[in-house]
Design a protein that fits this description.
Largest sheet: none
Order of helices and strands: HHH
Mean pLDDT: 87
Structural class: mainly alpha
Low-confidence stretches: none
Strand content: under 5%
Distance between the termini: 68 Å
Number of helices: 3
Helix content: 55-70%
Oligomer: single chain
């Protein structure tokens, strides 16, 4: 783990970009998966995959927590 200390530290910092509800549920398993990737793949490959995933999933998770902008239609006054 000493070899990957800086990468794990930075990855944990980046996980803070996710909403709290997401982090509390998934951050431990995501960190463990990232650490496993570091052990079995190249560091550059791990970061490419992790940053690509973060770029898509962080905004998606923030948008999922927002109320919908769709307004239900009002019933017609004659109905």
């Amino acid at each position: 783990m000493k070899r990957y200390r800086a990468s794990l530290f930075l990855y944990r910092l980046l996980l803070r970009l996710y909403p709290e509800r997401f982090r509390s549920r998934f951050s431990e398993s995501m960190t463990a998966d990232f650490e496993e990737m570091l052990r079995t793949s190249s560091r550059l490959g791990c970061w490419k995959r992790a940053l690509g995933d973060l770029a898509w999933s962080v905004p998606r998770e923030h948008l999922q927590g927002r109320p919908s902008c769709i307004v239900a239609p009002r019933p017609a006054p004659w109905s």
